[in-house]
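Thanks for the sequence, V.! I ran DUF4389 domain-containing protein right away. Repeating your input here for the record:
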Amino acid sequence: MTTTEALSTHSAHPTQLTARLDSRLSRWLWLVKWLLALPHYLVLLFLWLAFVVVSVVAFFAILFTGRYPRPLFDFVVGVLRWNWRVAYYAYGALGTDRYPPFSLSDSPDYPAHLDVAYPERLSRGLVLVKWWLLAIPHFLVLYLIGGGIHVIWSTGGLLGLLAFFAGVALLFTGRYPRGIFDLVMGLNRWAMRVAAYTALLTDEYPPFRLDLGGSEPVTPVL
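Predicted structure:
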């Protein structure tokens, strides 16, 4: 069974965001991760520009054919995946001290992962409204969570505050509070589901709920 088939069979949502908290984290490294992550931020700047162009092309492809071209889909998912690894390393979570790889592909040995099940068909009508009109309620929530609509690369708001609290805890105790980690993961998971929906990767509307913890909720196989 392929990864995509497993996701569509077992997952409660087609967008899968998971992470494993490092058992041992540096007390002080989080203070300079803004500097260490700069090369990634520069690359991501250009990747997000390409992301916008590719999304426009995909919009018209879906509108006329009902399908998201697979190469374009894989690129868009790859940008989200890269962004998530950097966020997990830096101030979107501070959950690992392992430096993120420069890759659009999944890295099985890295502790943070993102995948989106590829849809064989997408609604040609929804593509006109889901990326702005239908997503407005989520945008309002994400504004509070991340200090801005673009929470998936924001370091402000509640996510930034929680990451700061985790950093302070690491500095003085050498431990990342598990409750903070679970909440940070839930908030990031919510944001990434909205990102996948507005990027036209799925027609499944994001749920208004926090699925806490490093693992995705699963449903039994029927």
